[in-house]
Write a structure and sequence with these properties.
Structural class: alpha+beta
Largest sheet: 5 strands, antiparallel
Helix content: 25-40%
Number of strands: 20
Strand order of the largest sheet: 5-4-8-7-6
Strand content: 25-35%
Radius of gyration: 47 Å
Shape: rod-shaped
């Protein structure tokens, strides 16, 4: 639509519609030019005032001497002044002392920059300010219009962003510099973060493991531990520190000590695990166990020699008698057969003793399997019971007949039994009794626990020694008669089998009592248990 604006003879202006669809203005609707200019001025004034009052920036107007003549609503909010408190006041009341902006305005220049302003309460704050000269029709400055934006929040955000970036850089550097591996697992079991150290432990790059399920690196037997952590990250009953093994890229099992905790933000979103490679620690521990085992074997040497010498003496005598009968031609076949059966029995007995000793001395014990604890105790006593009885020590055995099986390493648990029996013997140099008991404890869990107790009739454990009894290298025996490792190693073995080991002093005629608590297997495994 095109308008043809013309002034008529009377000085009025008509709007004429030149489009195909014409419409005439009603009679008497001609606008006087002065009326039009006045209307435009009034409308523009109202429009400008409305904009200036409602814009979300501080807008002020001063005369060239710096006295405020306009102060919009947002200025009241920013500076904490009401308009009537500052109008006709000098702009320095708002803290605007430097630079000399009015000088630039008088020179018909614009100011654009950051200055420090002040609220009514005296709080100073940074602001971005743009000041422009308001000009007359001769292009001369007659006033100053200033627009200010409070930069406090922006500065705080910048500070927070900078601090967050610094902290992130610090945390990233800290995590990467750790000797321990770090990983984060979400509630779906997927790995969300892996630091370089853990990836190096396992022979991967960190990106190779991101998004993978934790089962990619955790051994089958230890996966339930991690699943429990994921299912109940804040449950204090779920074990937060434990030993486990991870599978490397090459398929090698690497032992780790793991500490876990919930990943907390606004809510718990997964678990964080810190893992420490304990390969060297495991080697040292095996060396320690083996050292204690060989020390125990050395102690048993004389007892084993006595145990073997008896049947060997009888065997030699029987062989000599048979040779003599053959030489004299007086061999009685029936009697010879009985003698040979006796020789075979003694030889088997010697072989059984030496086999037990060799099995016990092995550096690498066999893996775990279902065990009958009663039979394991009897097998352990073969090497120590005879000598104990010679030293006037009697054994009382209270075995629970239908004992559920335990899952464990027979070689290691035999070491525990022999250590406890030898300690009991050493506590009774004048003789006494050793009471061995097995029982089932139902403590409300799915499977009952099996408890073995070994008690002696010695003097018990001094109150001064109770807190140190399981410490490595602590011993009350005379120099050269003990390494101080027996109980420490035994406790560690029991804990590795998933159990616990405690002690107390008995009442009456009983001295010290050591308890070994082990978890039983479910019934279907117990029924098919091995000796």
């Amino acid at each position: 639509m095109i308008h043809d604006n013309r002034l008529n003879k009377e000085g009025s202006m008509k709007f004429t519609d030149q489009s195909p669809q014409r419409s005439k203005l009603p009679e008497g609707s001609d606008l006087n030019w002065n009326q039009l200019i006045l209307g435009m001025r009034k409308t523009t004034k109202e429009f400008v005032e409305n904009v200036l009052e409602n814009i979300i920036e501080s807008i002020v107007i001063t005369n060239l001497d710096g006295y405020l003549v306009f102060f919009n609503r947002y200025s009241e909010q920013m500076f904490e002044f009401k308009a009537h408190e500052v109008l006709n006041q000098h702009i320095v009341i708002l803290g605007a002392k430097t630079p000399d902006i009015l000088k630039q305005i008088k020179n018909n220049q614009t100011f654009n920059g950051e200055i420090i302003l002040k609220t009514k309460s005296g709080r100073h704050f940074p602001a971005h300010v743009r000041c422009v000269p308001l000009k007359n029709d001769k292009d001369k400055p007659i006033a100053m219009v200033g627009v200010a934006r409070d930069l406090t929040r922006e500065r705080e955000k910048q500070r927070i962003d900078t601090e967050m970036a610094r902290l992130k850089e610090f945390n990233d550097s800290l995590i990467e510099s750790l000797n321990d591996g770090i990983q984060i697992i979400n509630f779906e079991g997927n790995i969300e973060f892996v630091n370089k150290q853990l990836a190096n432990f396992l022979g991967y790059e960190p990106d190779d493991l991101l998004g993978e399920h934790y089962t990619k690196i955790v051994t089958i037997e230890d996966r339930p531990i991690f699943q429990n952590l994921i299912d109940s990250p804040t449950d204090s009953k779920v074990k937060a520190t434990f030993e486990t093994s991870f599978i490397s890229k090459s398929g090698k099992r690497i032992p780790f000590f793991v500490g876990s905790s919930p990943l907390k933000g606004s809510r718990v979103s997964g678990i964080v695990t810190a893992v420490t490679d304990i390969s060297e620690t495991q080697k040292l521990k095996e060396e320690l166990f083996q050292s204690e085992k060989m020390s125990l074997i050395g102690t048993l040497a004389s007892e084993v020699a006595h145990e073997i010498n008896n049947p060997l003496g009888g065997l030699i005598i029987s062989v000599q008698m048979l040779i003599e009968d053959i030489e004299k031609g007086e061999l009685d076949l029936k009697m010879a057969r009985e003698e040979l059966l006796g020789i075979e029995n003694d030889a088997r007995r010697c072989r059984n003793i030496t086999r037990k000793l060799l099995d016990f001395s092995r550096r690498k014990p066999e893996g775990r399997k279902p065990l009958n604890l009663n039979k394991l105790i009897e097998a352990s006593l073969i090497l120590v019971q005879r000598q104990a009885e010679i030293e006037n020590i009697n054994f009382i055995k209270n075995y629970y007949e239908k004992l559920p099986s335990v899952w464990g390493n027979s070689n290691s648990l035999q070491q525990v039994v022999m250590n406890l029996v030898k300690n009991a013997c050493d506590a009774m140099p004048m003789g006494g009794q050793i009471i061995i008991t097995t029982e089932v404890l139902d403590i409300g869990e799915q499977n009952p626990w099996i408890r073995m107790s070994i008690a002696d009739t010695g003097p018990g454990i001094s109150s001064d020694h109770k807190d140190m009894i399981f410490d490595s290298f602590f011993t009350t025996k005379e120099g050269g008669k003990g390494t101080g490792l027996g109980l420490a190693v035994s406790k560690r073995i029991v804990e590795e089998q998933g159990g616990n080991m405690t002690f107390e002093n008995g009442k009456g005629k009983t001295g010290a009592i050591f308890y070994v608590l082990l978890p039983s297997l479910p019934e279907y495994k117990s029924e098919n248990s091995h000796d």
